[in-house]
Amino acid sequence: MTVSNVKTDKAAAAVPPVPRPAELAHIVKNDAEAIAIAHRLAAEFIKDSSRRDRDRVWPVAELDQFSQSGLWSINVPKAFGGPEVSYATLAKVIEIISAADSSIGQIAQNHLGVVAAIRTVSDKDQQALLFAEVLKGTRFGNAFSEFGSKRAADFETKFTDASDHVIVNGQKFYSSGALLAHLVPIVALDGEGRAWYAIADRGAPGLTVIDDWSSFGQRTTLSGTVIIDNVKVPKTHLVPGYKGYDKPTADGAIFQIIQVAVDTGIAQAAIDETVQFVRTKSRAWIDSGVDNAWDDPYTIQAIGDLTLRLHAAQALLERAGLAIDRAVAEPTAETVAHAQIVTAEAKVLSTEIAIAATNKLFELAGTRSTLAEHNLDRHWRNARTHTLHDPVRWKYAILGKYFLNGERPPLHAWS
What we know:
Layout: H1 31-45, H2 49-55, H3 60-68, H4 87-100, H5 102-121, H6 124-136, E1 158-162, E2 165-172, E3 183-189, E4 195-201, E5 207-210, E6 225-234, E7 238-239, H7 251-280, H8 297-329, H9 333-365, H10 377-386, H11 393-405
Antiparallel strand pairs: 1-2, 2-6, 3-4, 4-7, 5-6
Helix pairs in contact: 1-4, 4-5, 4-7, 4-8, 5-7, 7-8, 7-9, 7-10, 8-9, 9-10, 9-11
């Protein structure tokens, strides 16, 4: 008998699960349709994005629209009835959504990453079972990271064998999307210390999801604490995630490229807001000699510089997506390393432009842009929070070791 030692003093704060979708989700036909759907949804999501951030309103209806649109199944392989779009397209979709509301863009990240992992590590029967769920509109959340471990990949959550199922115990944090998920993949270790995705039903007895995310940014990513107290997971839903990193695969780069796309989306939103504010609200500086803020030569130069740097990040993002496509189709040490390196390059530039654009917004738009009624600080808060997902300073080390000494990047979800 398994005895849990998980602390459950917060269980009274549990958020109840949401129902599965009543109708089947749309299945996207091709890359062009995926981009078109993303633009259509973004036009709706942006309308109340400031209010959702300010009042921390959960994007319940928006998330249903997002997953039911078919964009949450765009990397399901064609062999299983999915669209299998290019990862360059997938990244563009996330960027477009994130420019409208970066919290909504981030919520899809772990779902799409788990779909990619299932393709890499699961057998055909498990792939057929889980991909069918995704195509119907089932959303994966995540219960990966742990709050008190020494390093990000040090997991204390474990499972034990119980015939046709396993029993999982542990506690997680940073669980983006878990609150409104239908299934929650839990990273848990077996007796040999190998990490698996134990995909639990969101309403499984013993699975407690708590809305205690208190960060100043990405406020509606539906993150927080997940308590796992003797949770039963059928072995059909036990995915050997460790296999994605015991040999070269694109799994790590896929998790990373979606993070990059969230940040380029934030940067795009900040530049758009800057242009709009300067064109409609900002005043020309007293010494500028011009009547309109948009004619200020220093503002013109700054907008040109920011846009150029964003375009550079976007170009690398697209290049990384195409490199990932090659690594998925032909996973070798060389193709996987190339995908990791280009994605790391994109991560560096996307982090820098997200921080620069969200900070420069206030300098160029002027003092009135800081007024609470505009809530423009949400872009900086979101950029500063999201870019902490993994330290970009280590990306420079990865790049230097590769180009100077031919050392390939490590294989894990942060590389």
